[in-house]
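hey can u run this one w/ uridine-5'-diphosphate bound, need the structure tokens asap thx
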Amino acid sequence: MKKEMVYEGKAKKVFKTEDDSKYIIQYKDDATAFNGVKKGTIEGKGIINNKMSALLFKILEEKGIPTHFIELLNDREMLVKEVTILPLEVIVRNIAAGSLAKRLGLEEGAVMKKSVLEFCYKNDELGDPMINEYHIEALDLATKEQIEKIKRYSFKINDILGKYFKTRGIKLIDFKLEFGLHKGKVILADEISPDTCRLWDIETDKKLDKDRFRRDLGEVEETYKEVFKRIQ
Ligand code: UDP
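ok here u go:
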């Protein structure tokens, strides 16, 4: 079923299948941070990110968000719809953390009056610079209609995931989404996992995400397992 590899990223490989409209994504244990400067392995991460993304994509689909997810194939692979990824990273933030806290001089954990949506230009060479809707249109990265749809989906995803994680004792601090075009339509692609979300324990604020790897906080593998156990 799996044919040639069409793409290899930092954490995933993408393969063609016999059906041109479907791809297979394979999740790796490789971890990188700071635009590839820090490299490592988080044992079992690929399995958790694959299964966690599958579970969350399924929930989002049920609530009306179109995603690329078709079905889970095995521990490390899922079948997805073929998409052309829009070169945008969409970040939604509920609590100040990471680069936003640094950029705006806020304490990590600072409560903001409302959620914030940011766009970054997906370009490793440039270090994924932050851009706004004018840049997106000017550089023809997406159309105005596509941007509107992406914003609407992203806030709805924030609502759905925020509530879901809360019932499992987890605060959704921020997360990154990527969208793609499938048969001309905008759909959610990529993954939703502790690699792409900041997740804090609701009681203790303990970091339950990739920041444990980025910042050498220890218990990295254990934490990925813990998050998956909680959200199942
Ligand atoms: N993020 C991601 N991939 C990136 C950059 C950010 O998945 O290339 C996620 C990150 O895990 C966090 C959110 O997007 O949940 C916001 O990240 P931020 O801009 O604060 O950057 P960071 O501090 O992670 O470099």
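The domain at 84-218 is CATH 3.30.470.20 (D-amino Acid Aminotransferase; Chain A, domain 1). anyway lmk if its weird
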